[in-house]
């Protein structure tokens, strides 16, 4: 059993950045408290920039959540260029290795986080409705609202977004567990969370005033989507997959058609590069070389004299080595070598033979055509998602705003293929940077990293995850409320997840 280590405190953290009880949560856990009077540092850094009190300009898109209140009078703002990112020198706790994981264990995790995702999703939607002004058509008051002095009340919009993101991570981790133990990828199951993923992305859409710590969560959503595309691509074209088998049949039929076309175009000689040089029946044989073209013997008369013209022997030898006139019209084929029959590879062919081979066509079934189109779109989508992800979420961003999660990844002893080892709820154990989506793996690491980011970021807002969700009403209470008020009942609120996606996962088959 590996030894356990406690998580030491972070190094290089300025005392003025340490949290105090008077600290009011801001849009980012790295932002300074509202007042410096209670700071334990007697000598605060001198490189500070005071912000004069001014009327704040409205955002381009109004926000309904009171996440980031305007700067108070006399508040000292931190210049982002002068913030030193805390560097974590801590070593994460080395947990005992679980080894292989069974399908039963994966199914247990699948069911657990499917249920957790449903609760978090309902709570996120319900909390969003409660943050609208009472006059708004989609306003829905909570049956048991949080106390006015609580973080859940002051930052209701941000808490709602965290719950929705938490739900997305739980749903993704749930589906991944079912795939992981079977070493497979059920594309149809992954399609069921597309609408909810887009919904979360809209809620975390970055604005000019959005801090980088929150933009990192948008990058996380893009990363989840990119890794889903990558997984579907790799498993969808793996050896033995339906697409792979269909392509093998198609290539075999194409190769046979090319061979038949070449034989029909020139039945007298399949190998035209050398076979066409052989004399045909009934033709005059090629004349033997003249004695003059032969090398001079001891009894022959010299053909060269001092000061005379050079002998034509060299020219005659060059003429003999030159290509035979019958090959003048031959051309190479542009077909891929893998499709060419062996006897036609790397030899010049007659133009009519080349044309016959290149005009061969084979029928492609609708299913294969659709799969190939999906693969093409998947490659483009994966590249687009990962390009957006790395804009907002990368290792420097992790080191600056999520130092604990960063340390758990860079100081890890886990390997890329041990996604099943960490506990999803662990806040001190080892993690691993997700790596490359083109491998088809790593989605489990994305979920584990995302859960750790949510927990680390949420501490500044006293985010409690499942312990703080808005409870879902019982079916009879929900039906009664819908029938009585007519709000959120039969019609679909524009501020909620589209109908049909309340349960992102299908029933077990």
UniProtKB/TrEMBL annotation:
UniProt keyword Signal present: yes
Signal peptide: 1-17
Coiled coil: none
Bias type Low complexity, positions: 289-298, 307-324
Annotated spans, Disordered: 21-89, 285-324, 471-509
Keyword Signal applies: yes
Keywords assigned: Signal
Basic and acidic residues bias locations: 58-71
Protein name: Uncharacterized protein
Natural source organism: Mycena maculata
